[in-house]
């Protein structure tokens, strides 16, 4: 008999009833150290008091009015994002998947309005993950994502990750945009080198092709900059944001330049819940904290500390690990065993991690994690690796 919850996830036999900071707790009081943060969502940790206060304060005022009206909380967050980024305008969604849908529409509408409706193709990269809607799975293009779901939305050209020559060859009179994650998350914590992003920007400028960055997982301070592309000095025309921006409350956004967004006039897109007062009140508080230079400097310091400890772990277990990847607190352990085995071994040590493609174990803690907690987490990873390395009795 099918579960009352559609069984599209292979869920762990764990259920958490409360959390605080980097810790989650089951009903019997067992505490788990969380290195997943809801898959890079709980940027300020579980039940962050400042976010609880922001949500509660707004909840006593108004929850939902719809985008038929002005929403002051939405305006406040949009203004903050515009002030701190390349963008001139923001559209709020409920998720990264919805942000992808709008990014695709916006890029194609841009060329339609410029009198080039044939420019609909979007260049993407293998290993990408942009969500699970029709456009998002078509953008990723992998058999795992599209198999069994009927005709795939056309208009996407899939290239190997970091293959610059392939990009140059693929850009044509049909190309409207190039879309990528500055750091692939689901694909295995694979950062795009600065030189690659700069080369894409040059191609974009030379051909008029729009540049779309998906910073759903790598954005909002995760890499030690507010957004990962800032390390390269390259700015996109359109950017997708979600996960960390709501600190655990469902919230996403598309940021764009005025030129890129010019075709999106009244009636061309909408969302019933997107930009609701609750989500934007929380998002504004997250933005206020995460965008502070001191906070981002602390993320960088923590990332360096954790990476050093993980490098030691790799050296101690060469039979289990190959290397450490990533930037800031978006790190990955390339494994010689299935990462799912390490995730399961971590459960025995009351540690939570997240598997990814390319045999990688993702380390995505709350950005507020302490050095003591990071040291404890590596100790528990060490114990999990040791247990896996033991020969079967």
From TrEMBL:
<comment type="pathway">
    <text>Amino-acid biosynthesis; L-arginine biosynthesis; N(2)-acetyl-L-ornithine from L-glutamate: step 4/4.</text>
</comment>
<comment type="subunit">
    <text>Homodimer.</text>
</comment>
<comment type="similarity">
    <text>Belongs to the class-III pyridoxal-phosphate-dependent aminotransferase family. ArgD subfamily.</text>
</comment>
<keyword id="KW-0055">Arginine biosynthesis</keyword>
<dbReference type="InterPro" id="IPR005814">
    <property type="entry name" value="Aminotrans_3"/>
</dbReference>
<feature type="binding site">
    <location>
        <position position="271"/>
    </location>
    <ligand>
        <name>N(2)-acetyl-L-ornithine</name>
    </ligand>
</feature>
<dbReference type="GO" id="GO:0003992">
    <property type="term" value="F:N2-acetyl-L-ornithine:2-oxoglutarate 5-aminotransferase activity"/>
</dbReference>
<feature type="binding site">
    <location>
        <begin position="214"/>
        <end position="217"/>
    </location>
    <ligand>
        <name>pyridoxal 5'-phosphate</name>
    </ligand>
</feature>
<protein>
    <recommendedName>
        <fullName>Acetylornithine aminotransferase</fullName>
        <ecNumber>2.6.1.11</ecNumber>
    </recommendedName>
</protein>
<dbReference type="InterPro" id="IPR015421">
    <property type="entry name" value="PyrdxlP-dep_Trfase_major"/>
</dbReference>
<dbReference type="GO" id="GO:0005737">
    <property type="term" value="C:cytoplasm"/>
</dbReference>
<feature type="modified residue" description="N6-(pyridoxal phosphate)lysine">
    <location>
        <position position="243"/>
    </location>
</feature>
<feature type="binding site">
    <location>
        <begin position="96"/>
        <end position="97"/>
    </location>
    <ligand>
        <name>pyridoxal 5'-phosphate</name>
    </ligand>
</feature>
<dbReference type="GO" id="GO:0042802">
    <property type="term" value="F:identical protein binding"/>
</dbReference>
<keyword id="KW-0808">Transferase</keyword>
<keyword id="KW-0032">Aminotransferase</keyword>
<keyword id="KW-0963">Cytoplasm</keyword>
<keyword id="KW-0028">Amino-acid biosynthesis</keyword>
<dbReference type="InterPro" id="IPR004636">
    <property type="entry name" value="AcOrn/SuccOrn_fam"/>
</dbReference>
<feature type="binding site">
    <location>
        <position position="129"/>
    </location>
    <ligand>
        <name>pyridoxal 5'-phosphate</name>
    </ligand>
</feature>
<dbReference type="Pfam" id="PF00202">
    <property type="entry name" value="Aminotran_3"/>
</dbReference>
<feature type="binding site">
    <location>
        <position position="132"/>
    </location>
    <ligand>
        <name>N(2)-acetyl-L-ornithine</name>
    </ligand>
</feature>
<dbReference type="InterPro" id="IPR049704">
    <property type="entry name" value="Aminotrans_3_PPA_site"/>
</dbReference>
<dbReference type="GO" id="GO:0006526">
    <property type="term" value="P:L-arginine biosynthetic process"/>
</dbReference>
<dbReference type="InterPro" id="IPR050103">
    <property type="entry name" value="Class-III_PLP-dep_AT"/>
</dbReference>
<dbReference type="GO" id="GO:0030170">
    <property type="term" value="F:pyridoxal phosphate binding"/>
</dbReference>
<keyword id="KW-0663">Pyridoxal phosphate</keyword>
<feature type="binding site">
    <location>
        <position position="272"/>
    </location>
    <ligand>
        <name>pyridoxal 5'-phosphate</name>
    </ligand>
</feature>
<dbReference type="InterPro" id="IPR015424">
    <property type="entry name" value="PyrdxlP-dep_Trfase"/>
</dbReference>
<dbReference type="InterPro" id="IPR015422">
    <property type="entry name" value="PyrdxlP-dep_Trfase_small"/>
</dbReference>
